[in-house]
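Weekly puzzle thread! Below is a chain. First person to post its structure in token form gets bragging rights.
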Amino acid sequence: MRILLAEDEGKVASFIARALQENAYAVDVAETGEKALELGQDTAYDAILLDIGLPGLSGIEVCRELRQREIEVPILMLTAPSSSVPSAPVSISIQPTPGRRGDLGGCPPR
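Winning reply:
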């Protein structure tokens, strides 16, 4: 199984990639939104782990672009609380795309 990990924090990316590799996953790492979009459209992945706060294109923008290009790989969005707002509430909205019943292929709206 091949996974794209889009994460700009080196230590976090290394930790996640190592854990996945130890469990027999092939992992490619992208450190920017542009690189994630490039890899996501050029390589057949089984899943994408996508940081929302990527430099350049945000994870949400990457997700939207991949969906607009009809790339339907499962995407898991990752984020961490902001250090400047430690008690900020977290809200996730999933917008289903047309297709199979229960398919959660959409991205959170802006």
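Puzzle host: Confirmed. Bonus trivia for everyone else. The beta strands are 2-6, 26-30, 47-51, 75-78.
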